[in-house]
Amino acid sequence: MEVITIDGERMSNRRAAHDHLTEALSLPEHYGRNLDALYDMLTERGGPTRLIVRRRDTAISFLGDYGEALCQTLEDAGRANPQLEVLFPQG
After folding, report:
1. CA distance 30 to 85
2. Secondary structure (DSSP) of 6-75
3. Measured distance CA(39)–CA(45) in Å, rounded
4. How far apart are CA 72 and CA 63, in angstroms?
5. Rounded Cα distance, 26 and 42, in Å
6. Closest CA to 24 of 51, 58, 61, 56
7. Cα Rg, the chain, nearest whole Å
8. 71: closest CA among 91, 57, 85?
9. What are the Cα distances from residue 66, in Å, to 44, 48, 49, 69, 82?
């Protein structure tokens, strides 16, 4: 299983968030850098993957409603793709 860690500290604004997601998830150049595109990339991802999202609250404090929507997108993708497990550890 591939384990990928996303860090809310690295999501100080939308651009930084998508830069971090692109790097951490090895997204292709044609990734649209928006939540719809993120959902598509994650639901199409093959192979077992565990996505650990650290400092969710920090990302939300930086991004506000967009941070909430980003986290919801990650959760929704995890429910839609049986190969993807999305975790939001406390602390």
Report:
1. 24
2. EEGGG-SSHHHHHHHHHHHHT--TT--SSHHHHHHHHHT--S-EEEEEE-HHHHHHHHTHHHHHHHHHHH
3. 10
4. 13
5. 11
6. 51
7. 12
8. 57
9. 22, 27, 24, 5, 25
Report the alpha-carbon distance of residue 15 to residue 2 in Å, rounded: 25
CB distance 63 to 10 below 8 Å: no
* Average pLDDT for runs of 10 along the chain of length 91: 96 97 95 96 95 96 97 97 95 56
Structure tokens at 66: 């967009």
pTM for this entry: 0.92
**Burial class for 1, CB neighbours closer than 10 Å (0-12, 13-18, 19+):** exposed
Structure token digits, residue 49: 């993957």
Tokens of 11: 């999501």
